[in-house]
């Protein structure tokens, strides 16, 4: 081995370099493979927030978690959970130290960009039956044309019964799609700006093309769709107004690349952080501080509503928990630390002009700490303190976790936000940490398996 010069030694000692995990630890891919097989199962089972909650609740029960009881006195090592309106779940493991010493929060969101049905969605135009949609979250609309879609959702019938929809995921199921123009007739469409390649009111989902038989029917193609939905689920057209129906990509999670080093799937943002968070919560059974893992809803539309982090649902839960131990909730908050566990945009060589390479995250380099998010002048950002950065970095370095630092693109190219600012508002030291993603918010996103597993290890280190 070539001997280093004194200058080279100094460069190594004083400098910093984020390397690919595969270069630092060649065995990393193999140890990540098994972990990610179960992650793919979770992705396919949890296309919506309600489905994620049902999946996690069932898994938590197997791990010994019990429903939260406000009347019970909890001791170190006890594990319990709380579900908010079927769309959020909180997992708690009581630590060795009391809540007066603070808690360790880890919060990820389980909603993803999608197409929601309008309240009165079903229509017939020129012998085609359609569902009208209203897109949810930040999507690039043109990406959703001619993408195979599945229908998921919840309908409350007039008699109060609740029906869960899941159509388009099984091999034998029909799927649905939005049409687009053929290139031979697309000359005028080609002149549109990219963001208008498909417009919001053109995201109409084709549901059927065969008429109901009978005379003097106003809309026989629409009626055929209603008949089939009624036979399958017992719903009528009026029931759409008592429903949440989401159209999501029907594609399954799969290995990407001949080396199988990556996973392509719908909803990595932010189910990849949700999965690694609750798996870490399961793994760390006797933490020093009480761990509070929150999988929440509505982040993609600003965390609004009573299932989003802008609401008081977590604060109310923590007040209940603190009251059991005789602790003032504000004392607990100010001594706590939170990971806002959300993804960041991985550097994409094909579109390098929007990234500032030195401060970008890369596939395969481990979880990315994002000190601040927001737009341009850090608008809408939490901006973690030096002390918070030191604490989280110290946890990972203590446990040998490989990590990286990153921003969301160049300063003036755009930006985005996470739930970090809401925890900051509650007087909790907070920083973003998550998995780098290629093609974020597309119907099919890409992550590296080693990043998924290393993020799980980072969360374990934080919980310990």
Describe the structure.
The chain is of the alpha/beta class and 464 residues long. It folds into two domains: 20-112 and 266-463, Zn peptidases (Aminopeptidase); 114-249, Roll (Aminopeptidase i, Domain 2). It is 28% helix and 24% strand. It has helices spanning 6-14, 21-24, 28-45, 49-62, 187-190, 220-233, 268-283, 313-325, 329-334, 386-398, 420-425, 449-463; strands spanning 66-67, 79-84, 88-93, 103-109, 114-125, 128-136, 149-156, 162-167, 177-178, 205-208, 243-249, 254-256, 262-265, 290-296, 337-340, 344-345, 368-370, 374-375, 404-405, 415-416, 429-434, 436-437, 445-448. Strands 1-2-3-14-4-15-21-17-19 form a nine-stranded mixed β-sheet, sandwiched between helices. A seven-stranded antiparallel β-sheet has the order 8-7-11-5-6-10-9. Strands 12-13-23 form a three-stranded antiparallel β-sheet. A hairpin with a 2-residue loop joins β5 and β6 (128-136). α3 (28-45) crosses α12 and α10 packs across α12. It is globular, with a radius of gyration of 24 Å. The model has no long low-confidence stretch (mean pLDDT 94).
Q: Going across the major beta sheet, what is the strand order?
A: 1-2-3-14-4-15-21-17-19
Backbone shape: globular
The percent of residues in helical segments reads: 25-40%
Work out the helix count: 12
Task: Present the secondary structure layout.
Layout (H helix, E strand, L loop, with lengths): L5 H9 L6 H4 L3 H18 L3 H14 L3 E2 L11 E6 L3 E6 L9 E7 L4 E12 L2 E9 L12 E8 L5 E6 L9 E2 L8 H4 L14 E4 L11 H14 L9 E7 L4 E3 L5 E4 L2 H16 L6 E7 L16 H13 L3 H6 L2 E4 L3 E2 L22 E3 L3 E2 L10 H13 L5 E2 L9 E2 L3 H6 L3 E6 L1 E2 L7 E4 H15 L1
Parallel strand pairs: 1-2, 4-14, 4-15, 15-21, 16-22, 17-19
Antiparallel strand pairs: 2-3, 3-14, 5-6, 5-11, 6-10, 7-8, 7-11, 9-10, 12-13, 13-23, 17-21, 18-20
Helix pairs in contact: 3-12, 7-12, 10-12
